[in-house]
């Protein structure tokens, strides 16, 4: 809103409130949608580090009533609530695979219809909204600050936006708060007839219910700035006698595929579901955090391969370092032992490229150490990574996890079993052949007293 970087000061350090616009659950989310989930998860983690886990309340909503969901239901014949339950569960599961913590509160739109109707009534009473032809519209002329967040000229905005011209609108830019539902569409009884909320309304209603009238931080993708966040501000401020909706606004940049923004309408999307078949979730997380969150990020196979190689270097250290470096295995080293360079970078507007550089530097130093000093350095590095949702895998398991071209763990286990059988039958030539075959595929075997263990080289 201020168009500058400002020091963050919560209104109440004992209750830091964050709201981020979450997914509309009608289909699989694509990796571009996941950038916001990961960026705001990092912000949540950094705030928890400063104010304490109990003090930070992070709400991320689920949009479970929307025309896209109604369309998906019509096309597939599946009931609406079956679709929304399914894709909300998949979203939770897939974001968890990228080490995204569950939000403190996950409000759902259909659970807040009463609050939304009450908000519309308040807006009509305040003179900011009018009912017409089964619809209720917000009159943007009544909100002088309209357009301040997205900084677009009002004339330009009307020309550029895909505003729907409709006979019941006083001004073509007025947006829908409530609209009528046809008999076959989901709807709720309201003072304006049976209908359903417009999309923007739900966030204003849920923010007030879950967090209060003015929150500390509102986040989302930059494509939500206009019209969605502009409309949220108009609704909330008008209903609350001009009280600001959020004290700070944070928007993340797009994911790009070549020259274009990754988007479902352009058809150039990549699904986390498919990526997770090849890559560990941490590789996707590292790749998403590799550029500063406000910058565009180009999504390529090379980025994934590079992210895997970089993480391998850290896991190599964690594998080699003696265990028990942490003062306490459960809580890790004391905060004073955490590497400051990483935190200073994160405190500077989540400067992840700088934080990654700090991690690499610490790793290079730790690799030169030995014994207890190496163990301590590795534990400290692990704690810094954990704050960013990284280095959470067991190092042994990490080197068994997928790569783009290597054999799958199942194929490897099958060959190891075949080799064990060959050895038992004293067919050592065959056993050696299998060992060589695995080595050629980058898999290293270590024979133990019971059976062979393996890792990727
Ligand atoms: Zn929203």
Sequence-ordered SSE layout with sheet pairings:
Blueprint: E1 16-20, H1 31-51, E2 56-60, H2 67-76, H3 80-97, H4 113-125, E3 129-132, E4 135-138, H5 154-160, E5 175-180, E6 195-197, H6 199-210, E7 215-221, H7 225-239, E8 246-252, E9 255-257, E10 260-261, H8 272-278, H9 281-289, E11 297-298, H10 301-320, H11 340-347, H12 352-367, H13 371-387, H14 395-398, H15 409-424, H16 428-440, E12 443-447, E13 452-456
Parallel strand pairs: 1-2, 1-7, 7-8, 9-11
Antiparallel strand pairs: 3-4, 4-5, 5-6, 9-10, 12-13
Helix pairs in contact: 4-6, 6-7, 9-10, 11-12, 12-13, 15-16
This protein binds zinc ion.
List keywords for this structure.
457 residues, 4-stranded parallel sheet, 16 helices, 13 strands
Ligand identities: zinc ion
Strand order of the largest sheet: 2-1-7-8
Give the strand content.
5-15%
Number-wise, the strands total: 13
Question: Average pLDDT across residues?
Answer: 92
**Overall 3D geometry?**
elongated
Give the distance, in angstroms, between the N- and C-terminal Cα atoms: 49 Å
Multimeric organization: single chain
Biggest sheet character: 4 strands, parallel
Structural class: alpha/beta
Question: What's the total helix number?
Answer: 16
User: What is the N-to-C order of secondary-structure elements (H for helix, E for strand)?
Assistant: EHEHHHEEHEEHEHEEEHHEHHHHHHHEE
Low-pLDDT regions: 326-336
- Radius of gyration (CA) equals 26 Å
What's the helical proportion of residues? 40-55%
What does the model show?
There is one protein chain. The chain has 457 residues and is of the alpha/beta class. Helices cover 45% and strands 13% of the residues. The chain has 16 helices and 13 strands. It has a four-stranded parallel sheet, with helices on one face. Strands 3-4-5-6 form a four-stranded antiparallel sheet. Strands 10-9-11 form a three-stranded mixed sheet, covered by helices on one side. The structure holds zinc ion.
């Amino acid at each position: 809103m201020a168009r500058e970087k400002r020091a963050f000061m919560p209104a109440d350090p004992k209750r830091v409130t964050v709201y981020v616009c979450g997914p509309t659950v009608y289909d699989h989310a694509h990796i571009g949608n996941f950038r916001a989930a990961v960026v705001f998860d990092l912000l949540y983690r950094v705030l928890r580090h400063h104010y304490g886990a109990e003090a930070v309340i992070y709400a991320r909503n689920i949009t479970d009533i929307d025309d896209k969901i109604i369309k998906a239901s019509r096309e597939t014949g599946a009931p609406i609530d079956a679709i929304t339950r399914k894709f909300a569960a998949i979203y939770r599961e897939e974001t968890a695979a990228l080490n995204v913590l569950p939000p403190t509160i996950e409000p759902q739109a259909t659970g807040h219809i009463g609050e939304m109707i009450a908000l519309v009534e308040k807006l009509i009473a305040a003179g900011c909204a009018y009912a017409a032809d089964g619809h209720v519209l917000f009159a943007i002329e009544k909100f002088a600050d309209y357009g301040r967040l997205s900084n677009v000229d009002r004339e330009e905005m009307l020309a550029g936006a895909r505003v729907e011209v409709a006979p019941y609108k006083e001004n073509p830019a007025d947006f829908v708060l409530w609209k009528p539902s046809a008999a076959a569409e989901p709807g709720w009884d309201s003072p304006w007839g049976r209908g359903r909320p417009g999309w923007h309304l739900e966030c204003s209603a849920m923010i007030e219910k879950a967090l209060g009238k003015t929150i500390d931080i509102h986040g989302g993708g930059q494509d939500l700035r206009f019209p969605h966040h502009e409309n949220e501000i108009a609704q909330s401020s008008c209903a609350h006698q001009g009280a600001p909706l959020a004290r700070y606004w944070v928007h993340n940049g797009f994911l790009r595929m070549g020259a274009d923004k990754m988007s479902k309408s352009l058809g150039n999307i990549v699904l986390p579901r498919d990526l997770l078949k090849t890559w560990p979730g941490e590789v996707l997380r590292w790749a998403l955090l590799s550029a500063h969150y406000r910058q565009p990020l180009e999504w390529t196979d090379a980025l994934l391969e590079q992210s895997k190689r970089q993480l391998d270097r850290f896991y190599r250290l964690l594998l080699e370092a003696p265990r028990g470096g942490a003062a306490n295995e459960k809580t890790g080293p004391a905060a004073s032992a955490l590497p400051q360079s990483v935190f200073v970078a994160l405190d500077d507007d989540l400067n992840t490229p700088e934080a990654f550089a700090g991690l690499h530097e610490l790793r290079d130093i730790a690799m030169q150490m030995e014994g207890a000093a190496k163990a301590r350095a590795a534990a400290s590095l692990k704690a810094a990574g954990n704050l960013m949702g990284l280095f959470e895998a067991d190092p042994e398991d990490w080197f068994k996890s997928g790569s783009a071209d290597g054999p799958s763990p199942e194929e490897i286990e099958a060959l190891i079993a075949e080799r064990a059988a060959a050895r038992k039958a004293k067919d050592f030539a065959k056993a050696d052949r299998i060992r060589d075959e695995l080595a050629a595929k980058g898999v290293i075997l270590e024979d133990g007293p019971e059976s062979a263990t393996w890792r990727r080289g």
